[in-house]
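Hi L.,

You mentioned the student needs an example of a multi-chain input paired with its predicted structure. This one should do, with 577 residues in total across all chains.
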Amino acid sequence: MCGITAYYGDRETCEILLDSMKRLEYRGYDSAGIAVLSKPKISVRKDTGKLDEIEGKLNHGNSKSRAGIGHTRWATHGNVSEKNAHPHTSCDGRFALVHNGIIENWEKLKEGLGEHEFQSETDSEVAAHYIEERAKNKGTEKAIRDFMREAAGSYAIALLDSEEDRLFAVKSGSPMAIGMGEKEIFLASDVYAFSPYTDKVTFMKDGEYAVVEDCDIVVKNTRGEEVGKRVETIRWEQDDSGKGAFDHYMQKEITEIPRSLEKLQNSLETDQRDTLRRFTEKLKDCGKVIFTAAGTSYHASLLGVYFLQKAGVEAQALIASEFENYERVDENTLLVPISQSGETKDVLEAMDYSKQEGAEIASITNVPHSTVERKSDLNLRIRAGQEVCVAATKTFTNQLYVLMKLAESINGTKVENSLMEKIKEAIERNEGQIKKLAEEMKDEKDVYIIGKGETYPVAREIALKLKEISYIHAEGMMGGELKHGTLALVEDGTPVISLIPGKGSDIISNVKEAESRGAKIIEVSPDYGDFYVPENSNGDFAFFSSVLGFLLTYWTARKKGLPVDKPRNLAKSVTVQ
Ligand code: M6R
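Structure written out for the whole complex:
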């Protein structure tokens, strides 16, 4: 699961590649590497670690090379090590490649190769040796076509051929975008990787490969026939303006929540107004609505179910990775994938499956021009701007907002207009209290978060945040479920964060049950506890409690001295199954 990029042109190849790789680091930051065409062989540099730590080592300096490939890795096959970092090369050094995806039958392909010396434990390396073997008699293009016929799984590959001074791209199942500049070609897992250099873009389809030679590109199918491609001019929407005065992106992105919501609100009233209307019609007209998503976006989709059911629309949510095991989809289904990145592989698989079964797809994404967006019949953008921290924060609250708006258009309930102001106030007024609590939280091993109704998904979301960013074991659950097992784990002083919308809430009896077993109750409520929580109506408590949970996570991780924006073992976008 990785980010790949390639360049062919007259600029300083390594500089371009490094810049693109930084934009792709959301796909993995275990290791990185660069290969450039140089005579007589390809030159490769790679290492483990994040790009800002190793970029000096990867840069080949003022090389005269006109072509190169780059990779940022999230390990799947083979541990995090220099030898498993991409690019991988053929035995004779003629070929080097970078790969995103998983070649499922790599062992079988390897067995069929005969005497080849492998350097890594990765599935990817087999492609370099396979192409080397076949290219000897047939030439590179035919070798690539053979590979496409034989390889199973998903892959996007960029390949350098030093003998022919050519760059190739191959795609099946994983994304590959092509950027076209003045006498230069860019390849990458997404269009943002080359956004500073060109806005002319085309997307490769599964079963296509591309040949880049002398800054010209030709796309072909598996029979070797040229395929006509439509070149689009992209309007860039996402720009990373840096951390500014903040210490971490997470802190900046939480602070941006009110502004992001305002931008979304504005967009839903202007440029996306018609899309919102069409989306609403689809929700009302279909037989059933099925949300699918992963991680934080899945928690948003649980709230989507809650809001839509209240608006009288039958809806359910299903984790994307289990979609086919648990779902029956047909032509009466409206599938609603929710994905910040629009690149989560499990979500894409659920979409492909649903499409085959005849379902219509109306998606909700953040990153414009993503694969989810392009595969959908209709798409709403949540307009949260670029989110750099691995933790989804402002994109979660924008997802909630769009879901509330959809429910609002169906049943006429009004989303609070002062919501953004109130969130801003809650962020400002709780800082001291949050820091105090984070000081205690940093030494905790286990935390439970309970919610009910609209706050059950939020409880799960806060738990996810505490795990991924603060490295604390946390469970978010329905308050009523505590007594069906988990209560056995509650000892004197076990923290139980309780999301209580107000006086008289049903969840209070669950809070009492935990308290009477010695739990340390941390109340998030307008009526109880030490936090400032604004009075709420129509679902805005979900926003306030999420924001407080995000802040608590942030300050706890910070007090523990953790790498807040890039936690261990994770990537922002999960592009493998
Ligand atoms: O890009 P997506 O919304 O599809 O990503 C889904 C999850 O991988 C993501 O929400 C993940 O759980 C976040 N890092 C949580 O903060």
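You could point out the following to them. The radius of gyration is 25 Å. The chain has three domains: 3-233, 244-415, 422-577.

Best wishes,
N.
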